Amino acid sequence: MPQNLLPPDISFKALLRLAGPIFVANxxxxxxxxxxxxxxxxxxxxxxxxxxxxxxxxxxxLMGLVGILQGLxxxxxxxxxxxxxTEIGIDLGQAMWLVLGFSLVGVPILMxxxxxxxxxxxxxxxxxxxxxxxxxxxxxxxxSMAARTFIxxxxxxxxxxxxxxxxxxxLALKAPLNAVFMYGLFGLPALGGGGAGISFFILTxxxxxxxxxxxxxxxxxxxxxxPSARDLPCGRSHKNVQHGICCFSGC
Length: 251
What we know:
Blueprint: H1 12-43, H2 45-69, H3 72-81, H4 85-111, H5 113-120, H6 124-156, H7 160-183, H8 195-215, H9 233-249
Keywords: Membrane, Transmembrane, Transmembrane helix, Transport
InterPro entries: MATE_fam, MATE_MdtK
Protein name: MATE family efflux transporter
């Protein structure tokens, strides 16, 4: 039997090779927020409250938008299985147009800090530090969404280790960068809980650069294209789901 007609390896060992790096990467991502919480708690209750409010608001906006971008993963996986490598790059480029559009919505929502402070009942120093934290996470939102598209496509093309190593590298840098901005090292002002937002901003774009550099070493097409409704990943996913439902139900 030709090699390309062999069934995929679905053994436990094969699944572990995929699931293991994804698990480690997710732990590393969660660990970043944990470091913020621990270091903020060491400074006091107000710093901890500011970080908690900032993280809650940021996650609320980010996860809602990233959930749509995750539509890239099954589409890229379909192309990868069909060995249509250039199509993966095209869809990734279209996903970046979605990131741009979502940024025009998400950034102003996070920048509306008065709303979030009123919603969280934050006042005084807590409100000041939370506002500072959210200012930087709002600026990081486009980079964070763009990085998530690379994470989605890396999982789809069986390269979760890329995400794992980048996430671990960012985790290793999190505490030192937090210390610089939260505690005021090297002559910089001590920003307390608000300083954690600056480290989030820096690490977000460092990770995006890392993903972009690694991706451009491959033979996927990344040629810029204008937005296309046909090529948008979430649009393709929706059509594929509709087609599957119709085939199953006989409609």
